[in-house]
Amino acid sequence: MLSLDNVSVNYGAIEALTGISLHVDKGEVVTLIGANGAGKTTTLRTITGLLQPRDGKISFEGEDIGGRPTHRLVAKGISMAPEGRGVFANLSVRENLQMGAYLKKDKRAIASEMERVFQMFPRLKERESQKAGTLSGGEQQMLAIGRALMSQPRLLLLDEPSLGLAPLVVHTIFEAIDEIKSKGTTILLVEQNAHAALKHSDRAYVLETGRIVMEGSSKQLAVDPRIKEAYLGE
Amino acid sequence: MDTFVQQLINGLTIGAIYALIALGYTMVYGILRLINFAHGDIYMVGAFVGYFLSFQLGFAAGPSLVGLSVVLVGSMIAAALVGMAIERFAYRPIRKYARMTTLITAIGVSLLIENLFVAKLGAAPRAFPQLLREQSYTLFGNAAISKSQILIFAVSVLLTLLLQWVIFKTKVGTAMRAVSFNLNSAKLMGINTDFIISFTFALGSALAAAAGVLTAQYNPQIDPLMGIITGLKAFVAAVLGGIGNIPGAVLGGLLIGIAETFVVGYGQNVGVPTTFRDAVAFAILILVLLFRPTGLLGSTVQEKV
After folding, report:
1. How far are the Cα atoms of A56, A99, A113, B257 from residue A50, in angstroms, in the given order?
2. CB within 8 A of B128, min separation 6: which ones?
């Protein structure tokens, strides 16, 4: 569905990604784990066109999408919940969700999609008319995910959804990820929380200083001694 | 008391004009963090488009409500196009550079427009045709309000309410607020942010053009440099209200208008000469920057982490 082929990205003179290749197949949850500054967020920002690759090819459903403006990719079926949640703090919860469905014209479809998001995250329903800036960190993350679902994406990119959240909320978020997967949406998940990410994904890539150093099924990687030592703290 | 009411009416009239222009400054700032110094010149362009439309369409011959409406709407549309062109060709190509670059570009665009008009049309003031049959109504006591003042109030209230509706009730307005909060997040929603920015310039420019035509009914002299001082005062109004804040721009505009009129009306009683009328706005600017840099209604947004 999505494939990156030898993609390199620079921040000015500094190389942030060095020839990374990865692929995500339909229906999978693939996770990208790695330490802070390994290039995980850079990878997602490059896929969504917020950053331009210096080299390499990015394709989605067989089509070369490198260099496409970000807003065009949403129409193609890619949606992202950005790191730090990136919700519109000055907009209400409802307005945030409406913005998620910006390209949708059918009012009834938008309303039923919003209902689905509210079913997944009842907390959002309770706070529907509140400004997003008044939500707790966990609620903002739920909103960011819900908002990304409003465009009914075929590929959902999640950037550090558990960052800075209490363990109970992290649990809720990962349950939601399982639910989204069960409904057929493909997910590329970037996480620092390798433990949860490996538990809730099918395959994984390990990024270190802009390079993919390991890949495999999540089950395998979860028991790999190198991963255990470096990322699972065992 | 009568003079007080009179001063207030006059002050609110000028203030409404400042408010219309300040809205454009504040919207563009809200969305791009750019002080569009060419915005005052758009007000001038609006007045000149109105001037030429009046003659071209034959409305200069005599006052008529149809003529006034056509000229007003026509100049708003023309100014919207000019504003969009400025954004497209001057600001968009340099958007990714440091903010100082865009600021200097804005000053450059302003000088370009002013000097282009002076070169083509000459610097001499022109008499704007009367599109409204001027008449004065006596209120209680001896205070009077003229038809052009009523027009200014009516149109500026209408346009402000319309703007409020666009920004808070429509999809494109919600997108404008989204873009102003976080450009990249807005892109991730599928919002064509270039279009939203262009639309913001169009709205602001149309309001400035309306201010230009309305002013020309109240004080029928226009010249290519008329946008400089008025534009600066409207900018101060936007800062006073809290730049980026829509109600703040209206409040700031009205306050600057009143302050200015009161300096002329009452200043002498306390030893302030009437020649200080233009200085008062800038005195207010300095005070605001010293004591309340966020303006009256502006506040620093607390972001939750």
Report:
1. 16, 18, 26, 44
2. B47, B50, B51, B54, B216, B217, B220, B221, B222
- Write down the ipTM of this complex: 0.92
0.90 cut: is pTM over it? yes
In chain A, the largest separation of any two C-alpha atoms, in whole Å, equals 51
Alpha-helical segments (H) within A30-182: 40-47, 70-76, 93-100, 107-120, 122-126, 137-149, 167-182
pLDDT of residue A116: 95
Distances (CA, A) of A89 to B165, B175, B187, B245, B294: 20, 13, 16, 15, 19
B193 CB neighbours in chain A (<8 A) are 71
Segment B172-213, tens digit of pLDDT = 999 999 999 999 999 999 999 999 999 999 999 999 999 999
- The structural domains of chain A, ordered by start, are 2-89+153-230 (3.40.50.300)
Which of A99, A133, A140 minimises the CB distance to B189?
Answer: A99
Read off the amino acid at residue A118.
F
Q: Does A208 touch chain B (CB under 8 A)?
A: no
The Cα–Cα gap between B12 and B136 comes to: 16
Residue A229 in tokens: 């030592």
- Residue A71 is nearest to which of B177, B187, B302, comparing CB atoms? B187
What are the tens digits of pLDDT across the range A206-230?
999 999 999 999 999 988 888 888 8
Per-domain residue ranges for chain B?
A: 2-291
Joined tokens for residue B41: 């010149």
Which CATH class for the B2-291 domain?
Answer: mainly alpha
Distance CA B252, CA B254 (A): 6
